[in-house]
Fold each of these.
Amino acid sequence: MLTLTYPPTYKPERLYIYDFVLRSFLGLSYHHQVGLPGEVTISLRGDAEKRRLRLDDTLFSIPQDHWLTSAVTPKQPLETILAHEVDLDFDWINSSLPVLFGSRLSNGEFYQSSEDGIDLGIDVFGSAFFLLTRYEEVISPARDSHDRFPAKASSGVQQGFLDRPIVNETIEFLWACLHKMWPRLERAPRSFSTILGHDVDIPLIAGGATWLEIARGMAGDFLKRRDLSMAAGRLRSLVENRRGNLDADLWNTFGFLLETSERKGLPSTFFFISGHSGGKIDGTYSLEDPWIRSLLQEIGQRGHQIGLHPSYNTFLDQDLLGKEFRRLQETAKSVGLQQAKWGGRQHFLRWRAPTTWQLYENVGLAFDATLTYPDRPGFRSGICDPYPVFNLQTRQPLELIEQPLIVMDEAFLGKGSFSIHSVKDSMVRFKDLCKHVNGVFSLLWHNGWLISKKARTLYLELLEA
């Protein structure tokens, strides 16, 4: 068993991140004890040579009156640890690893090995804590027109690491150090997996649409997308809708999604809107619609999951969020569906750290799947694995699990025409990064982004990659 010795400051924060990194992620048994200020060490019971791994402790060494202030940010530009500087068995993504928090050692580098152990100038635990808790979003006033923290204000964009799972990498670097000192030490096995999710914003393009709205969409098909078949499909959808044949709607791609998921052995989660606090921005369908109820029933009967897509104004409103969650549960129950756990993803990705997490916990949701940026794919939390969250304001860990979203269709396809090959290559790059660290690739694809043959081909090729 390992023994972790740490300073007496920030105990709730420390125990949260120590437990996640060592027990949850690496699967290691460890005992923790309070030691001297400024010293974080890991040792192995029974090690006759009494070697120790000595780690930097920059983040949790800052004065209390600087906590949750702009004084706590990674240095710009970030320094890096280079492959040629270490003698570790470590699977580099490239030849360097960014250092969010840390300090160079006496040898001028971030790594030094000696007979009595390893000195590591990287603050592994502090860096992971900063990213997983979305610390910078709590202290930053930056917001976009939808009151969301923008990607451009993040350290990931500003420092150029949004497109890599830096928390996964840094923890794996820690493991390489541990394994070098104690080769017989065993960790929990990890394997790559994929999670598919589908936000049901507009299930039917003709549902609730007027002739004028359909005409405007057709004009866009002609003038912007140069897609005559899509324009014809919109018109046909409206005609069939008026006749009561809703299944013929152009945006009814649910059968395709279900069949594809089942063929690949990848159960999907479909996130439904159950309230309309923002008006038409939350769509026009109701859970009481017979067609929607039938869709919910089919999804459940085929072994897939239902999730909540909370409406526009729920991200800071517990009462509203709770009402919408109960409405979805009641509707699901009325069509014979039972689920052991429920998760949600915020509509328009409207989310606030740590408030929205706490609201999810309070109303009984088990996981959140919101964390990505609307205009940029990547690793907003620095990780591609689901992880337990921590409320920075209450200083308490939550039972809620964050399931980070890595790639969303609209981030690539919402800017007009696209090349299947270039978009697929970009998406596959993120998938390969998740695979490199034996993590989880989470993909969001809306039913409305499958109405063209081109988009369906892209989706299929991505899952095949």
Amino acid sequence: MSPHACPGRPASPAGIAVVSAFALALGLAGGSAACLAGTSSGGGCQPAGMKLFTVPPCRVYDSRSGDPLTAGFQVLQVAGRCGIRVRARAVSANLTVVGPQVAGYLTVYAGDSVLPFTPTINFNAGQVRANNAVVQLAGDGTGTVAVYYGAVGPGALTATVDLILDVNGFFADEKGKPGLAVLGVLPQAGGQSGGTLVTISGTFPDPASTQVQFDQQAASPAAGSTTSKLFVTSPPFTGIFPTAPCAGPGGLTGTMNLPASVDVTVADAVTGCSITVTGAYSYLPADSRCHVAPPPPPVASFLVFTSPSNDVAMFNDTSTGTPLTWSWDFGDAHTSTMKNPVHDYMAPGTFVVTLTACNAGGCSTASAFVTVPGS
């Protein structure tokens, strides 16, 4: 494994005051979104205390699109929406009350806490009232907030009000929770064309915001991924396979493709933390045969020896370039495939003899006049 890179979030000039107020309200030591770098021995991106992270401003809840709130308790889901990770413990939010039928108040607090004494927002009948607040979320894994609507005066039991909850750009991560970590990748190899279901084990605080890359190829976690396992389909291999020497036909030396190992990177899109496991996955080449580069074709040539006392001619191949096959045409309708043939002509005369010499790289032809004096 290579060292884990955990870059911090750059500060936004427009959000400095909000971050400071948010950190102060939560009793935090600082508002940086940096996380500690892990090590190659299996550590992960561990938060050093509570951390703040930016998200685009987003509307989490609007009762105007459904039923308005009635007097009493409501539970709203916040974490897991608008890029807010599932273990977030607080959000900076704008709360807006619309169309209250009677005077009253709303108290918004963590979904696993008891009702506090201080209301979050007060209003009169018919008023539109807004308030910015740091709203804590349930720490039991649900990431919810509870809303208590207290109506005052005649008609309080049946009164309704609409609530709009907008996250204005920041959320806080819970202190002491485990950060990003990668423990293993299985299987460790798959085909060149991709399509292998790969399981990455480790710690993934928010699978929905986790990104995976095989070298430079992105692979999104599939449905069913959890905080301890990511299921991804390997993308096709787009790199170059390493090669090694091999022995080919005819004793010639060739090359063959070897498996290519690539890095697997797991990153948290919200925190910016990433872990790269060097050479964690290998692509198997579709063609692992030994490929021999064809040699240059031979240059055909030959010598001939005749006797003045008979019709026999002896042929000696002198071709260069290591021919593997020979084809002789003696010019009298007879042929041979020997390297150095001996041919007995039936009568004296002058004949055109042709040799074709071939190897894996091609063929070459040489011709000469051969005179057989005869006896």
Amino acid sequence: MIDVRPCTTADEIVQAITPVFHYFGVVPNSPDQDRFVPFVEPSRAFIVHESGEAVAGCASFPFELTVPGGVVRAAGLSVVGVRPTHRRRGILRQMMRAQLDDVHRRGEPVGYLWASEDTIYGQFGYGLASLAVGLDVAKADTAFARPFVSRAELRMVETDAALEPMSQVYDRVRREHPGMVSRNPDWWRHRRLADPEHRRMGGGVLNRVVLSYDGRPEGYALYRIHQEMALGSTNGFVSVIEAIGATDEATRDIWRFLFDIDWVARVKASLLPIDHPLILLAARPRELKLRAHDGVWVRLVDVEGALAARRLGPGEPVVIEVADEFCPWNAGRWTVSAEGAKRTTANPDLACDVTALGSAYLGGFTFRQLARAGRVQETRTGALARADSLFAVDRGVWCPEIF
């Protein structure tokens, strides 16, 4: 007998996240628990039992997610796992049913996640909402196209000294960048600045650097050095965990600092937005060895609430017929305009599944792109252009951290 229910204690949260840790070859120890348990009230985690044994689980973080022109309450789904002994029994579907119903009851209009596998979450209404970019560049190819003299002040700091300046810079940036989520001090301490051995993945200690101008913090970097020497020369690399500048100048300067670190052969980074300035800063962008992969996924749990939270353009309204089998309360026709979304019986201009709305919601993909892929159908000429005008954004979606 399969029993899916919310957790009631912190100990049950640990049991709920244990199945997913099987796929990392470990059991969740104290540092792992510190990354989840303090940030999830028990009822936000779901545990699946069979004969009293925990065989699956998941949990969601209560996020404030930045959307174009505003913020929205969002459930950041994480640690979803089913033991391999119980696969293909419909357990994941039951668990997702319980989890999305819970998110709806809480009045959180959006679900948000990184997908462990890109074929899983579309069946539950999540749409691919961004691309994330990685780079792997040789030190010899890190020159910028335009020389400059930096006025930046840089200092290496420990965790306690890093918290205030880094959180200030991050908060300035995240309020303007769709896809970023709020972080409280405990999140910084336990998830971003902590440095337990098992998180190093063969690299060195976590380095924390603050960049300032005239004493005011404007950027920061978190990185590790993975050192390897051969015949007296380095084959090592810098692994950039997170590098953020609050201004264009600070972004340029913090990356110049990272590229200029000595005694390494390469610099590697991931989770950059598709429109990161480095692509145009670099003198040899080809040599950045850029690679793109799926980024964050978005699920509109409440179409009306989600569209009310984000800025929509001043263009003509468009009527969208939305199909949503898993959350049928969203299904139907919606008039979308600068005022948000409201139900209508008017003939539709566009038709799509809720996954397409998730892809367009943060501005990561346009309705024209979705139509070319067969994800949106235009039923009235000009509707795609009108929809793209309503959902227009001026920057790429960026979530710099896998949660």
